[in-house]
Amino acid sequence: MDKKTNFYMERRQFLRNTALTAGAFAFLGNRSFASIVADPAYQVIPLRNNVGIFIEQGGTIAWMVNKEGIVVVDAQFPNTAPHLIAEMQKKSDKPFQWLINTHHHGDHTSGNIAFKGVAKNVAAHANSLINQKAAAVKQKKEDQQLYPDTTFTDKWKVKVGDEIVSGHYFGAGHTNGDAFIHFEHANIVHAGDLVFNKMHPYIDRSAGASCKHWPQALEAATKHFDKNTQYVFGHAFEPLKVTGTVEDVKQMQDYMEKLVAFVESSIKAGKTKDEILAAKAIPGVSLWQGDGIQRSLTAAYEELAV
Question: I need a labelling partner for 267 at 20 to 30 A (CA). Which of 8, 26, 92, 149 fits?
Fold first, then answer.
């Protein structure tokens, strides 16, 4: 077996064995899995105003480097976070002032541990901390966590050099603890897993997700941020399309609204759960691709059939 073949086999084995919170790996889909295995190299992509993204495995990371220090949003996995840390240290000798989590899932927070003794502070929504602790206890991984030491409910703000970083919570969606993180001067918002760009989302009802409120949270965000805001998304059907505009956010809002409307009308029409889950498409939704529609239908049914 040559070295390249062995590398890919080990990589596949790692991805199979990685334990993600509440089955989070399921939402990556076959297309994304294939892309990840085929292209193991991580990417560091500048966006604007010293803010950029890091792509390797799991949720997209956003970063900011200026004269006062470094800010990182989300942390992926314990084996990928050190790559991000090393890349930031090439850019600056300033300290990591903040690590911020958009929410608690393992593909966004299990890499937190790599920032122990590196990041001065860790922040997240209060519910994200609760969910992270509960998941760690359930998985018996409390010793593998770096928990937020700073939490917020509706709003939070901190100044780092010439940038203001703020957190905004508009209610339950993907979980009950997802926050939008805004680099205000750069006008870049990390939406986390509140936006799955053109791919069927993972909806974590065990952590307080709400299909009905999710589009309301997205609408609140589009009203709060402006038309020039650039967004970073947790995941995308096309792995590199993890940035976009307000139009992409509105399309995610439309997806969730049409999902709820379809399941709600099907229940009222007397359709059974099996009949609803047999649907191959959501009426009016044409841009979403890949596997995973049953996850969305199941979550919506469980929420609405009460």
Answer: 26
Residue 273 belongs to a domain: no
Residue 2 burial (C-beta neighbours within 10 Å; 0-12, 13-18, 19+): exposed
SS3 114: helix
| 190 found inside a domain | yes
Question: Which residue has 């996850």 as its token pair?
Answer: 295
Question: How many angstroms separate the CA atoms of 258 and 172, rounded?
Answer: 18
DSSP string, 241-292: --EE-HHHHHHHHHHHHHHHHHHHHHHHTT--HHHHHT-SS-TT--S-BSS-
Domain coverage including residue 104: 3-247
Confidence tier at 306 by pLDDT (50, 70, 90): confident
Reported pTM: 0.87
3-class DSSP state of 190: strand
Q: Is residue 77 part of a domain?
A: yes
* pLDDT tens track for 66-102: 999 999 999 999 999 999 999 999 999 999 999 999 9
The enclosing domain of 54 has a CATH number of: 3.60.15.10
Q: CA-CA distance, 271 to 269, in Å (whole number)?
A: 6
User: What is the domain count for the chain?
Assistant: 1
Q: Report which of 150, 131, 142, 143 is spatially closest to residue 22, judged by C-alpha positions.
A: 131
Please give the Cα distance from 109 to 42 (Å, whole number).
Answer: 18
Phi, psi at residue 292, to the nearest 5°?
Answer: 115, 0
**Is residue 266 a part of any domain in this protein?**
no
